[in-house]
Amino acid sequence: MTDATTQPVANQPIAKAFNEETLKSYIAGQPHLHKIFNNDLSRVQITEIGDGNLNFVFFVTDQNAALAMKQALPYSRMSGGARLLTCERLAFETNALKEFKRLAPQYVPSIHHFDTKQSLLVMEFLTPHIIMRKGMIEGIKYPKFADHISTYLANCLFGTSDFSLEPSKKREMVAYFSRNVELCEITERLIFTEPFINSDNNRWTRPALDEQVFALQNNAALKMRVAELKYRFLTRSEALLHADLHSGSIMVTETESKVIDPEFAVFGPMGFDIGILIGNLMINYFTQPAYANKNNNRASYQDYILNLIEEIWDGFTKKFTLLWQSQRHGGAYKNSDFSDSSTDMQQALNDALTQYLHNILQDSTGYAATEMIRRSIGRAHVLDIDMIENDALRSECEKEILSFAVSILENKQDFKSIRCFLEKISKK
Amino acid sequence: MTDATTQPVANQPIAKAFNEETLKSYIAGQPHLHKIFNNDLSRVQITEIGDGNLNFVFFVTDQNAALAMKQALPYSRMSGGARLLTCERLAFETNALKEFKRLAPQYVPSIHHFDTKQSLLVMEFLTPHIIMRKGMIEGIKYPKFADHISTYLANCLFGTSDFSLEPSKKREMVAYFSRNVELCEITERLIFTEPFINSDNNRWTRPALDEQVFALQNNAALKMRVAELKYRFLTRSEALLHADLHSGSIMVTETESKVIDPEFAVFGPMGFDIGILIGNLMINYFTQPAYANKNNNRASYQDYILNLIEEIWDGFTKKFTLLWQSQRHGGAYKNSDFSDSSTDMQQALNDALTQYLHNILQDSTGYAATEMIRRSIGRAHVLDIDMIENDALRSECEKEILSFAVSILENKQDFKSIRCFLEKISKK
Q1: Cα–Cα distance between A235 and B332 in angstroms, integer?
Q2: What percent of chain A is helix, strand and coil (3-state, nearest 5)?
Q3: The domain that contains B109 carries what CATH number?
Q4: Which chain A residues contact residue B234 at CB under 8 A?
Q5: From the CA of B155, how many Å to the nearest CA of chain A?
Q6: Would the CB atoms of B227 and A333 count as touching at under 8 Å?
Q7: Residues B181, A197: C-beta atoms closer than 8 Å
Q8: Which of B387, B133, B149, B386 lies closest to B284, judged by CA?
Q9: Are both A116 and A145 inside the same structural domain?
Q10: Which residues of chain B lie closer than 8 angstroms to A220, CB-CB?
Q11: Number of domains composing chain A
């Protein structure tokens, strides 16, 4: 936000798509990038590796160095040019990355360069990291992940909240990210609207899921809960969200975890990021039986996932609590406004935190459920489900995902703990 | 927001203060203003009439026409130049006025002209309207006011909410008004922070109020409730607020009511506007005995105020309900997403509205209480209290105001109705 080069401009430049040749000459023209390759591009290889829906990503490497170069063109990649989007989305992504890098440096890739005119973001190339979703489908365990992501969540959500920021600074950031309307519109429509109405964009395994889908689209209590969650997403400016924190936005090794692609970033309720993550872990949980074979029934991997979710939540609350206790320098509940160290006051502050975390848990479980539904019956599905080739097996998993999500949204009482949420998994 | 001339600019112009002569030649140079005076300024009289803290207001009139011309200089008027403020505040005010005028045309003055460079806003001169606060101090009743202001509140709050606006439009407005940080900082500090800590800016009738002030500044439960209300003000982007809707921001006759001066405008919780208004009416209620004389003990005026508050709340909920039932075209609870007209769905929607109004009531009562406290012991007091010359009489009123406000903030259970709130007035 402080870097003039990342300020969005009113008249969007129309960047030209790079190819191998033009990208090389671009690098040659940028001394700090050129230097990464020892000012010699003769052995540099360039491959387009993007598998996302919106942008192009180039892998640029020689024997000694590697960069990821992401270009946003003025349309959605998936649409082949039919769906127009402003290039400004890459500026929002860059500014969000910078903010998260500041707050959780170990868990966010390094940025080398951003060029508004070319709509180009140059980052470290993460290797040998893989997309976490793919690792989970393969049944790979990530022993450090819960610790990493709970730190990321606590630092980024606390650090961009009114607990940490002065109101003027936070309002300035809200003003900036509120302009990320194009991608927010996608979030709002694909997660909260289309799956719950009759929309041509929805797709699900038919006819196996028909009954469940029509039932949930006519379930008044459930629709009201989803409308409330959408309302909270639209109105509660609690923290700067990644806003697309699924397991495909996380790159991992056994020892490292990096959160990428925050192009949907906007201020919203803290539980949204946590919920989207948990929802995707739960989807993977329910698909594990489909990946079982005679050597591995994946039961232990399912246990691993449930533990992981508990550890993430517990880690988040512990780390958030530490930040709350010592770093409340912002506009809300400012430490120095509560200098009275009486037992009463300290107890009242602790109670306020407990209530706040309780509210985040309710939001998180709600957003987890909406994510599970939209990934099963909405427009954008996930590999965990789509890679199951056997139709019967796949629809079985989808049914379980939907049943669980519906039971979460229909739940009348607050979840007292993350365990109460996980206990909603129906026993067989 | 759509008018380029009202867009704020990065480099603030430093407007020169007008005097009679320069203002006349300015009008002469603006054909549409000049025409209002039949292109003849020879009989025009100009008087500076501003009594606010921040700006200058000129009354410009001849026998046939009258205008109010408000100029914001790059400092606070009250400070005599010591406290710098950007002139941009007048652009926020102008854009808020335009928005409220669109939504509640009868209750907002007409705008004739806005000049960014001169930091000048030209509006209709309201006559014979007087500031409502002054009327109430005199014991004047306004039989139409509850109807007027409840329409204003319902139309403006609903009309700038996600119930009415598409998310992209609303986010654009949030982006714009989030930049009104200077005046928001005043709101945040004067209402929610200073009165509850040891601050040199506070002032109260000493020593009469000392005990109560120190008690509330050390009341853990009360401070926590105020911190929660501040947090909601900082994070809940529900609607575009006037954000300073006290009885000094309303001009009235027996048949007309006009809301002026929305320079503090920002998105926030709907209950904030309603609460500030109710808080100021309650302050006036508690000061009425000090204005009693042998001809009028003001008891009937006190009854009038309590009725007025009930009528405002009831009118607001009725009008908001009508809008909710028929005008939900925005991003939240959109009518067309709930086309199912089953009893279940209609009941669920009604329940959601009831819950929403219940939440607004809790916010409104909380903000009413913080307003009553800050106007009694904070930096900016009100005439209702300050005009009471007898120290003992004044401190008696202030004590009652504080006691009532504290009882509201300490109340553990939700208020089920506005009547439950009013019943907290201690019987004598």
Answers
A1: 10
A2: 55, 10, 35
A3: 3.30.200.20
A4: 162, 167, 170, 237, 331-332
A5: 18
A6: yes
A7: no
A8: B133
A9: no
A10: 340, 342, 344-345, 347-348
A11: 2
A-chain residues near B227 (CB < 8 A): 332-333, 337, 352
Mean pLDDT on B352-363: 98
Mean pLDDT of chain B: 94
pTM (2 d.p.): 0.95
pLDDT band, residue A12 (cuts 50/70/90): low
> What CATH number does residue A221 fall under?
3.90.1200.10
Q: Tell me how close the Cα of B228 comes to any Cα of chain A, in angstroms.
A: 8
B309 with B194, same domain: the answer is yes
Alpha-helical (H) ranges within A104-209 are: 132-137, 145-159, 167-177, 181-187
Residue type, A8: P
Are B236 and B119 within one domain? no
Within this chain, do residues B420 and B281 fall inside the same structural domain, yes or no?
yes
Same domain, A296 and A215: yes
Residue contact A344–B227, C-beta within 8 A: no
Domain finish residue from A96, A124, A152:
A124
Provide, as residue numbers in chain B, all residues whose Cβ is less than 8 Å from the Cβ of A92. Answer: none
**Residue B273, C-beta contacts closer than 8 angstroms, at least 6 positions apart:** B153, B156, B157, B241, B242, B243, B245
Determine, for residues A220 and B333 on separate chains, whether the beta-carbon distance falls below 8 Å: no
ipTM, two decimals: 0.95
**Do A295 and A373 have their domain in common?**
yes
Contact yes or no for A234 and B167 at CB 8 A: yes
Last residue of a domain, one of B83, B103, B124: B124
* Chain A nearest C-alpha distance from B286 (Å): 29
Domain that holds residue A99: 3-124
Q: With CB atoms and an 8 Å threshold, state whether B348 touches A171.
A: no
pLDDT tens by residue, A74-85:
988 878 888 889
How far A351 CA sits from the closest chain B CA (Å)?
Answer: 9
In a shared domain, residues A108 and A256 = no
- Cβ atoms of B333 and B164 closer than 8 Å: no
- Which element (helix H / strand E) includes A383? helix A383-386
What are A115's strand-pairing partners? A120
Distance from CA of A373 to the nearest CA of B (A): 17
Nearest CA in chain B to A351: B224
Question: How do residues A142-179 score in pLDDT, each as one tens digit?
Answer: 999 999 999 999 999 999 999 999 999 999 999 999 99
**Cα–Cα distance, B275 to B232 (Å, whole number):** 13
Q: Are residues B324 and B277 in the same domain?
A: yes
